[in-house]
Amino acid sequence: MMKLKVIIVGAGVVGASVARVLSQYEKLEVHLLERKPDVGWGISKATTGIIHPGHEEDPEEYPLRAKLCVRGNYLWHRWVKELDIPIRWPGELMIALKEKDLKNVEYYWEIARKNGVPGVRLVDNEELLKLERNANPNVAGALWAPTAGIINPMKAVIAIIENAVENEVKLHTENCVSGIKIENWKIRGVETNRGFIEADLVINAAGLYSDHISRMAGIDYVIVRPRKGEYCVFDETAYPKVRRILHPTPTPITKGVYVTTTPEGNLLIGPTAQDLPEDAKEDTSTSKEGLDFLLKWAGKIIRELPSKSKVIRTYAGLRPEPPDGRWIIEAYDDPWGFINIAGVRSPGLASAPAIAHHIVESLIKGKFDVKLVKKKKWIPYRKDIVKFRHLPREKQNALIKGNPAYGNVVCMCRVVTEAEILEAIKRMKKIGIKTITLDGIKFRTFALTGLCQGSYCRIRIAKIIAKKLDIPLWSVTAKGKGTEYGIGNVKVLLRNIPS
Amino acid sequence: MSMQDDYDVLVIGGGPGGLSAAIKAKELGLRPLLIENREILGGIPLQCIHTGFGIHYFKEDLTGTELTYRLLDKFEELDIDYYTGAHVTDFASVSYLEKKVRVITAKGILDITTPTIIYAAGARERHAFDIRITGDRSAGIYTAGEAQTMMDVEGIMPGREIVIVGSGDVGLIMARRFALEGAKVKAVIETMPYPGGLLRNVVQCLYDHNIPLHLNTSVTRVIGKKRVEKVIISQVDGDLRPVPGTEGEIECDTIIIAAGLRPYLPLLESKDVIIDPATGGPVVNDYLETSIPGVFASGNALVINDLVDHVLEQGERAAEGAYTFIKNKGLPTVRFKRMIKGKNIRLIVPQYLSGDKDAIIYARVIKPMRDIAVCFPEIEKKINLPAVRPAEMIKVKLGKNEITRSKNGIRMELVHL
């Protein structure tokens, strides 16, 4: 029997999750296309990383969001174990700053009840402070949602894709879709900068560009507007941190500024919410106003912030905002074989595994009536790169004995060894990444993310990449073409001067 | 080199602050072990190919590289144990007189027992996020030290059109360094109303190469989709805040952040050492002992120095401190006297004096002043100076007899003559 060819456009957390779920089935040829040099560099990269419980999604207004968030939270509990993804499950406190906000909090309790979110209840100020010592003692109360988790979104995308590739999904990076071929109202394949790829099904998970891809398939009512979110992150040595995930009662625009501690131990504040024009899909610039806004809001929620001088990085990401807030997750008869997963705003990360199952169950098996049979030998497990720093002495010693590169600490702030960096390079190559970037190493090992922000170790890591790939040191890039570390040999400009 | 697992003093850091400490310790008859994270000893001066090093210590004007080799010759002559490519991850004070230090090396994890530690891990550079530059996170932004390593150790060129942020000596020297390699240095940007570095460097590095210096100006924003395309600069007011409406832009592909250094202390901070907010380094007494008994600090990990000679001197002082600690089983001091910062004094190191011996005081001022006297009213000492500048450290020697004149604190202040 012929294999059914599936193309997924976009290797963010949603595209990756769909690829993983599809990789469980026989007689499918799954291609995952990504325009950037590495996976997860779009929306996924700069989400807060919260695995929401599902108590903020009104089931009447947003039925899909409500259903898939609750299910997604449940699925993540299994996925993080199978895929060895760093996560904390600290629970979330939605804080009522003033007495009048308590009404709002009750509304969300009601949603939690309707959605069947476990454990959600109202807590008074006294219990709030027991749950979170660093909460602002002057607030009115909170809604406690104990099933909330926080994940490193990049680690998650990488883990999912490593596992999907292990199960025969083919990743194509630096692959930009320029058109979709349709014949007789049926999908035939996609045109890309690297040639034509045949397909029976095309799943559009292109994030901010899902409107563009949708238009290529002739479905032109999809609109996705970028909404910018700025973040600030404190060094891991900055105290006090918070134990829980904290945020104020949401507004119609945003779930508000979150204060949380990442799985790596950094206090994280964000995001802001700023609507940008439809075409500003690359504007991830930060602003002074953004940082001030974050610190102001964090100050309302928590008792004490670390010194501002301990902010080691500010960054921004874009979320895809559909005009009415509703996700566009649909399969079409015309063209047959096309599926949109567009405008997946929050809680997209929390829902991603459930979205993937929904695509397969309801749309591919359901609407398209494709018969899928599970593989006998599907590999559900994947191990993360060993985190040398957190191992006990005996294990560290055993690793060094087997490979002395474990004894070479390259990034001092985060205690990342040469062996971890080499392992990251190996894994990037294994999933089919063409350009090994400094950012790729950063997201896989957390080197470059400490106090010095790479001023000490960036050159050391670039040297390891250059040596391993046998390329000039200056040509190592931060994020692919156009972001080279240097411009050539140190005499390159003098040689160009006419005598 | 015969390695063992107990030493008298474990020196963390193989730059000048650590090398001079290890050398002095060995000369005093102690058994030192030195740990360096890089593959080679020498630290940052190794990559400083300009002169201005060792004028006091070696009585010669050397390049950083030359100075480093002088030190290394001495170090090797004394046959001192060391590890390179190693990293101290943790230590524990087992007792007042015993510390266990964990070191990651390519040969395995070492647990070293020692009564004393000299922390000389140097400084880190303040980066673009430290100085609150916003906008795009483009490629082409480097700290000055990183750019120097690229050019003078690895032999690669960072970029073509350069804007330097900060006019301290490091920024000035990098401006010249880029000009000498044929890059176009578009501007050096300084928020203060005066250059941060030494006057001789302003003349030799900027004026001689026609590099514009913008004072009272700050870089507020970076613009660049992939690599840096331009920077937005702005005039600043008296509180160093950007003044709206004064923005301008400079096209460039490279930004060099030369905004100063901060003592690099994660290891000590994880042990809750007391930090002086003024220096960013540990609070020390005149043995250069930190708030953790038997743990000493020297060099830029202690306080950001202007001259390597001071770093070398601090290394020796710390070794002497370790020697006293070992011989006396702890320091002999009954009560330390606190140094108190008077008007226009930004920082003083050491922060406490024992009065057991003569002491060297290093201080920096907040603003430049001319025709002044450095006064210590409690001990009736006064030294006249023609001028003081924030870039230059004031170094004063206080005699044991002078220090003991005060029962409590000793104030250091500047008065106009």
Name the poorly predicted regions of chain B.
none
Rg of chain A from C-alpha positions? 23 Å
- Largest β-sheet summary of chain B: 5 strands, parallel
The proportion of residues forming helix of chain B, as a percent range, comes to: 10-25%
Q: Tell me the name of the CATH class of the largest domain in chain B.
A: Alpha Beta
Instruction: Bin the strand percentage of chain A.
Output: 15-25%
The CATH H-level homologous superfamily of the largest domain in chain A: FAD/NAD(P)-binding domain
Strand content of chain B: 25-35%
Distance between the termini of chain B: 57 Å
Name of the CATH first level of the largest domain in chain A: Alpha Beta
| Number of helices, counting only DSSP H or I runs of 4 residues or more of chain A | 13
**Can you tell me the CATH topology of the largest domain in chain B?**
FAD/NAD(P)-binding domain
For the largest beta sheet of chain B, what order do the strands appear in spatially?
Answer: 5-2-1-9-22
* Strand elements of chain B, count: 30
Largest interface: A-B, 61 and 53 residues
- Kindly give the count of domains of chain B: 3
**What's the overall geometry of chain A?**
globular
Please give a structural write-up.
The complex is a heterodimer of chains A (499) and B (417). By secondary structure, chain A is α+β, with helices and mostly antiparallel strands. Chain A folds into three domains: 1-86 and 150-223 and 323-384, FAD/NAD(P)-binding domain; 92-146 and 225-321, D-Amino Acid Oxidase, Chain A, domain 2 (2-Layer Sandwich); 388-475, Orthogonal Bundle (Arc Repressor Mutant, subunit A). Helix content of chain A is 31%, strand content 23%. Chain A has 13 helices and 24 strands. In chain A, α2 (63-83) crosses α8 (348-367). Chain A starts with a strand and ends with a helix. By secondary structure, chain B is an alpha/beta fold. Chain B folds into three domains: 1-126 and 260-332, 3-Layer(bba) Sandwich (FAD/NAD(P)-binding domain), CATH 3.50.50; 127-259, FAD/NAD(P)-binding domain, CATH 3.50.50.60; 336-417, Sandwich (Immunoglobulin-like), CATH 2.60.40. Helices cover 20% and strands 34% of the residues of chain B. Chain B contains eight helices and 30 strands. Chain B has helices at 16-27, 64-77, 144-152, 169-180, 199-206, 266-269, 308-328, 400-403; strands spanning 9-12, 32-35, 51-53, 62-63, 81-83, 87-95, 98-105, 108-114, 116-119, 123-125, 134-135, 141-143, 156-157, 161-165, 184-189, 213-214, 217-223, 230-235, 248-251, 254-257, 261-263, 295-297, 337-341, 345-349, 352-353, 359-365, 369-376, 381-388, 394-398, 410-416. In chain B, the strands form eight sheets. Chain B has a five-stranded parallel sheet with strand order 5-2-1-9-22, with helices on one face. Chain B has a five-stranded parallel sheet with strand order 12-20-14-15-16. In chain B, strands 25-23-30-27-28 form a five-stranded mixed sheet, with no helix packed on it. In chain B, β14, α4 and β15 form a beta-alpha-beta unit. The longest helix of chain B has 21 residues, at 308-328. The model of chain B has no long low-confidence stretch (mean pLDDT 96). At the A-B interface, α7, β19, α9, α12 and β24 of A face β7, β11, α3, β13 and β17 of B. β24 (488-489) of chain A pairs antiparallel with β13 (156-157) of chain B, so a sheet runs across the interface.
